[in-house]
Design brief:
Strand order of the largest sheet: 12-13-16-17-11-18-10-19
Largest sheet: 8 strands, mixed
Number of helices: 14
CATH class of the largest domain: Alpha Beta
Shape: globular
Strand content: 15-25%
CATH architecture of the largest domain: 3-Layer(aba) Sandwich
CATH topology of the largest domain: Rossmann fold
Distance between the termini: 77 Å
Number of strands: 19
Bound molecules: zinc ion
């Protein structure tokens, strides 16, 4: 009895002396619209460098990092947090921003006193001025810093454009399965599990990439509906097998004119390269088989507004596909606003990025008359400024909090100084409202409006500048969502853009 107790004590002491594997975690995330002539600069990036004590607080969130922290804790890994940088989608990242951020990420990883692996949280569709596949360049540099033996696990967004180059530079790559991205935490946990298996020698990840020669139009990238839903379901079924560590289907990001543009399948198997190849080929064939279902037939702004006015059940959400902020557009397109005014629609809410107009409203103050041209100021792709006359109803600091799991899993947001202009108050219970904000903000949370005193479920028409991502927030309240074929830097018809660097003969593109 005493002997076994002593043995137990020795075992416990030994366990306490065995250091836990140390995993560096960090990333630089950007989805770069290469058709957008603007540049994403260092100032556009939000930088976070959490220390180890901060991890406990971050673990309660819904995003990828929260999942990595929880997964690492469950698997007995110690995390070495480095740099987390991200910016709202826009034009390509400047060479300066790319070099500075990547150098900092690599330096912070190299500074770890001990290192057994690296988990990188990268969007997968970043284009910099110098590197059309900037994510691959980041992994290449991290690989150069840590050497060929250390496992590197990469987590990508569902909209990643994946290449052989990045797959061969890391040991395992997985992507969000869901669009809207509501599985971010789950994927973080999965990455930590794969890392734990790799560093303890319980698994030997090998992976294969297959890219079907097609474009998977953003309109069809809703993973909750066919044609994608059953394919994503199949990846989940595959992951039930102990031999499959991850099976990912990424829809791709069509607003980047780069060689890797288009959907991708990556399967990570345990030691069986042939299995990884076979299953990724099979999933890619499933994608290819849906190609004739991807037919674009959507109303333009005039027709969509007509349908919304004629509806008898509200609210109607009009998805402004050409000005999809999460896809890298300006956020100040006026095509739908002009059409709502022209057709005399009532009870609408339109949100525009227009810091100049916000300042004018703020100078006038609450209750003052607002009379000015709004929107259409960032570039020449999103319509002309529209003259609006109304009353400054309220002013806000723009902060809002999202408690639910929504696209991307974020909780804290800021749309900057924000003004609400009442354009038509003839029906006080259902006014027509123009929201002017100072920071481009993807409409992924209803609290963007609720925090301004707007009840979106009581309004008649909600203009939403996005494609699929806002659905997680808007589907629960919208009686109908109308996808509108508006012009802009995220217009859904690829024929509106000139591609020169993509692979030849992509179905749906050329
Ligand atoms: Zn995405």
């Amino acid at each position: 009895m005493v002997g076994s107790f002593l043995l137990w004590m020795v075992a416990m002491w030994l366990a306490a002396q065995t250091p836990r594997p140390v995993i560096a975690v960090g990333g630089i995330s950007h989805e770069s619209n290469s058709f957008n002539p603007s540049r994403t600069t260092l100032a556009d990036f939000t930088r976070r460098t959490p220390g180890p004590p901060d991890l406990e607080k971050l673990a309660s969130g819904h995003d990828t990092l929260a999942g990595i922290i929880a997964g690492a804790h469950a698997a007995g890994l110690e995390l070495h947090p480095t740099l987390f940088a991200s910016a709202t989608p826009k034009g390509p990242v400047t060479a300066e921003a790319f070099e500075k951020l990547t150098a900092e990420l690599v330096a912070r990883i190299a500074a770890a006193p001990r290192l057994d692996g690296v988990i990188l949280d990268l969007h997968g569709a970043m284009v910099s001025e110098r590197y059309p596949h900037a994510d691959a360049e980041i992994v290449r540099r991290v690989r150069g810093a840590v050497g060929p033996r250390l496992p590197i696990v990469v987590i990508h967004d569902f909209h990643a454009n994946i290449s052989d180059e990045i797959v061969s530079a890391c040991n395992a790559l997985l992507t969000y399965k869901e669009n809207p991205h509501t599985d971010t935490r789950e994927r973080g946990e999965q990455a930590a599990r794969i890392m734990a298996a790799a560093v303890t020698g319980r698994a030997r990840p090998v992976q294969a990439l297959v890219k079907p020669p097609m474009i998977y139009n953003i309109v069809y990238q809703n993973t909750r509906r066919p044609p994608l839903a059953p394919i994503v379901e199949e990846t989940r079924r595959l992951e039930q097998s102990p031999k499959i560590l991850a099976a990912s289907v990424a829809g791709g990001y069509q607003y980047a004119d780069v060689e890797a543009m288009g959907p991708s399948v990556v399967v990570v198997a345990d030691g069986d390269a042939e299995l990884a190849q076979r299953e990724s080929r099979r999933l890619a064939d499933m994608l290819w088989a849906t190609r004739h279902q991807l037919v674009l037939k959507l109303p333009d702004a005039a027709e969509a507004v007509r349908q919304a006015i004629a509806a008898d059940r509200w609210p109607i959400a009009l998805m402004d596909l050409g000005d999809n902020i999460g896809g890298g557009s300006a956020g100040d397109s006026t095509f739908l606003l002009a059409e709502l005014l022209r057709q005399g629609a009532r009870g609408w809410v339109v949100t525009l990025y227009d810091p100049e107009a916000v300042q004018a409203a703020a100078r006038g103050g609450v209750g003052s008359v607002f009379d000015g041209a709004v929107g259409g100021k960032t570039d020449r792709f999103h319509g002309e400024p529209v003259r609006v006359r109304g009353r400054v109803k309220s002013l806000h600091d723009g902060f809002f909090f999202e408690p639910e799991v929504r696209h991307g899993g974020g909780r804290y947001f800021s749309q900057g100084l924000t003004a609400v202009i009442a354009v038509d108050e003839s029906m006080p219970e259902q006014p027509s409202l123009l929201v002017l904000n100072s920071r481009r903000t993807s409409p992924n949370s209803l609290h963007q409006l609720i925090s301004l005193g707007i009840y979106p479920e009581r309004q008649k028409i909600l203009v939403v500048k996005g494609a699929i991502a806002p659905r997680a927030a808007y589907e629960p309240i919208a009686r109908r969502i109308i996808e509108v074929d508006t012009p802009g830097l995220t217009a859904v018809n690829p024929a509106r853009f000139t591609y020169t660097r993509v692979r030849r003969q992509l179905f749906g593109l050329n």
